[in-house]
């Protein structure tokens, strides 16, 4: 999102067809570029979010990012940061950020009161900042400067209960649990080594 324009011609054409331009304009007024205290509380309590990126040709990709509560931090008035943990080595999301920094993040509460918050912005990869050295399990940090922060209608969000956290979430003082797929015959000879990370 390199422009401050919230709606483009495609959005406007459909708004006009469905007579929703007035409500769309009203919703646009809720857009902001700085996080509120309520935004910060919601984001920093999240144990997952969805990350949308695109490559240099605009080909999209969507990724699930998970971790312990607090793994996403609001680090400035308009900035948030989250760790990149050991994964499958494809680097689709971070590779896209390297060539196209425009990103969109979607935070959803699936238990308790339903809620969605969207953050569109510009991302950069931090490979040696102080946050990297204090985040358990992080091999890189992604920082996002928000260009648009806005709520989203939660009406279709189901109510789910969290059974248990992922056993792969990095924990201070513990060696990481390796996923079973790394030992599968089809992959085991090609698995990349883990990068050194802060263990707490």
TrEMBL record:
Starting at the broadest rank, the lineage of the source organism is: Bacteria, Pseudomonadati, Pseudomonadota, Alphaproteobacteria, Caulobacterales
Task: Name the domain of life.
Answer: Bacteria
Q: What is this protein called?
A: Pyridoxine 5'-phosphate oxidase superfamily flavin-nucleotide-binding protein
Among InterPro entries, the record links this protein to: Pyridox_Oxase_N, Split_barrel_FMN-bd
Task: Give start-end of the signal peptide.
Answer: none
Q: Could you tell me which residue ranges the Pyridoxamine 5'-phosphate oxidase N-terminal domain spans?
A: 36-135
Q: Which organism is it from?
A: Caulobacter ginsengisoli
* SUPFAM superfamilies (alphabetical): FMN-binding split barrel
């Amino acid at each position: 999102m390199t422009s401050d324009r919230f709606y483009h011609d495609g959005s406007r054409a459909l708004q006009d067809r469905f007579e929703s331009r007035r409500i769309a304009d009203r919703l646009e007024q809720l857009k902001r570029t700085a996080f509120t205290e309520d935004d910060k509380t919601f984001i920093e309590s999240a144990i997952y979010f969805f990350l949308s990126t695109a490559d240099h040709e605009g080909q999209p990709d969507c990724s699930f990012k998970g971790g312990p509560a607090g793994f996403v931090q609001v680090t400035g008035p308009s900035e948030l940061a989250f760790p990149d943990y050991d994964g499958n080595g494809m680097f689709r999301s971070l590779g896209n950020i390297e060539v196209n920094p425009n990103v969109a993040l979607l935070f959803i509460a699936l238990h308790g009161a339903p809620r969605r918050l969207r953050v569109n912005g510009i991302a950069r990869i931090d490979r040696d900042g102080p946050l990297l050295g204090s985040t358990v399990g992080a091999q890189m940090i992604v920082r996002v400067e928000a260009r648009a922060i806005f709520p989203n209608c939660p009406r279709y969000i189901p109510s789910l209960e969290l059974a248990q956290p992922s056993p792969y979430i990095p924990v201070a003082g513990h060696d990481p649990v390796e996923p079973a797929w790394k030992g599968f015959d089809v992959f085991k000879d090609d698995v990349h080594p883990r990068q050194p990370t802060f263990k707490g």
